[in-house]
Every structure is written in C-alpha cells, then in structure tokens.
Amino acid sequence: MGGALLFIALHLHKIISITVRLPDNDNKLIHLIAVHPKDIFSFSYRHSVEKTLVKGIFQVASTPAMLAVETRMTSVGTGLPNTFSKRTTREGKWIVVDEENKKIDSFRFFISRVNTPFLSTPKGMIDLNLLPSGTIILLGVEKISQLRYLIYKCEKFLKKNLI
Prior knowledge:
Layout: H1 2-12, E1 14-22, E2 28-34, E3 40-46, E4 53-61, E5 65-73, E6 88-91, E7 94-104, E8 106-110, E9 118-121, E10 124-127, E11 136-145, H2 146-162
C-alpha cells in the first residue's frame, strides 16, 4: 500500500523543467533539467551565414513557459533576429535587444555543425553540437511528473555508467 501511495505521489507531483525534445522522432525527450520559476537560462549559437554569435536569454515562468528576456548578437545581418531602435542598446561587443519578457511556449532549432549551439542552464552547459547535423530540436519549459523526472535521471545514469 505504501509503495502505491509513493508511486501516485511521485506521479502527481509536478516539477518545472527545461526540456529538449526531438519533434521528428516522436517528440523524444533528450534533455531534462529541473528548474524553478525565475531561473535564467540561455541558448547560444553561431549564425551560419553571418558567422555572428547569437545568445537568447530566457527566464523560466511558472505557467510553465519561458520568457524571452533579451537577445544578444555581435552584429546584424541576413537572417539574424530583428533589432528595434527603441529596444536596442550596445554593451561592449554585444548588440542587446530587450525582448520585453515575451512569453514563448517552445521553439525549434535546426542543428548544424556550423552553428555550434549550446544551452546554458542553472545546472550547467549542454553541448547540442553533439547531435547529428540536420537534427531539429524543440526547446521548451514543461511541467513533468516527479516520477518521469526520476525515470529520466535513472536512464541517464545507467547509460553513462553501464555503456
């Protein structure tokens, strides 16, 4: 009886997590990072045409979602995020666009060796360049059951230590 109650409690208790999924592979979950509302994380990549470094800075919302805080880039050009004169400043080498905490549920990104994408979270860095070129990822913030989170962590531990 106690085991069943624990199972139910772990299933019902939700935690907010940054997730990286593969939408072209049944939405397979490949990264899961437990976070708290107001935590800050960033997604960085090098633009394939302009070779410009781009860094999106986000805040975890409690809904769950992510809030776009700002976009930083080292120059502007074709295919780069838009700049708006009233919301754009310069900080050293960075052009900084205030994204006004726009709510975003998730976004897709095409992985390419040229882009060298990585995700910086409160728990550390994730090198997304380890994924095969041509992979599409879906980055989001979700509520995940504590049970699903524990299963994910166990799977990662076993892969790392047994393979």
